[in-house]
Amino acid sequence: MLGLSLLALIGCAPQVQxxxxxxxxxxxxxxxxxxxxxxxxxxxxxxxxxxxxxxNAALGHAMLNAAQMALFEQxxxxxxxxxxxxxxxxxxxxxxxxxxxxxxxxxLVGPLTLAETAAAAPIARGAGAPMLALTSDETQGGExxxxxxxxxxxVGRRLAQATGNGRxxxxxxxxxxxxxxxxxxxxxxxxSGGQAPVVVPLRGDPxxxxxxxxxxxxxxAVVIGAAGLPARLAAQALPGAGLAQGTRxxxxxxxxxxxxxxxxxxxxxALYPGPDSMVRRDFDARYNAAxxxxxxxxxxxxxxxxxxxxRGARDGGRGLPLGEAFQGADGPIRLVPGGVLARGIAILEMxxxxxxxxxxxxxxxxxxx
Length: 369
Fold this sequence. Notes:
By secondary structure, the protein is α/β, with parallel strands linked by helices. The protein has twelve helices and 15 strands. The radius of gyration is 21 Å and the shape is elongated. It starts with a helix and ends in a 10-residue tail after the last strand.
């Protein structure tokens, strides 16, 4: 009962009465105070560093829409957003950060990619301006930079929690994402007293990797730390490789919008971490009402970062609401020291071509909880 009460409470902080939100009129994309109020009001500026041109322009504009929606829902005349085009390049992100800071921005939202963040972060730190980067690379966080994207560290810790303390096998992509995912699973299971996972990298033939993993079984659960065709081939091979019937199969958040995985018969009943369905459904509906289309998956990340930045700007210019829990686009969120936007992550089940939520996203107490 306490958990339900807390969820109701945190849901109202960054979104002021979201059910009452209406799309802005044709003359404006964000809420503006009356002219008389503008004349006497000092407004805090938040920069939005987004790829509005270039290969990621479509995503950049969806993120801009989501950020504007976050500000509109707060209905706060003390905050103004400054959109700046990064052009999707490191040099463009650095130039956008300098431009926004020169025009008085006190908090930066964005940029999107690892390379852009690495270029803009030193500029933000030098100016003493907090940055909420939209990348999922958790190594970029710290010293005034927070990573708003969902990275393998948080996903791995959620998987460690969801798979319990029994024997765990992990088939994982042989890349940086896979290595960080495994490290987080190991840390999470060690912290809870669980067994260390048996790990087999997905190199070459996924069926051969599945065979190698199954030979070291049995397992209580198996994680397929990949998406796309490798995940499908591994899932198809596991039963024939000797995976015991009843072994639970888990994936990662990368499964959520992979329509082919959702239709894969061998993954029926498989579980994976992802967005809280009810919360995300509400966000999608509000976005669609405002802009006439379904938002891109990563638009929710921009919404969360923009809402937190707007709240921080209005409450002190350069501060961020560290330690407070809020309802984000995909579930509960909390900014924690060290540069992480901690997310409550739900557990979903593949069932007849669709995802059905099995566990709601918990309120995060720290990164990955």
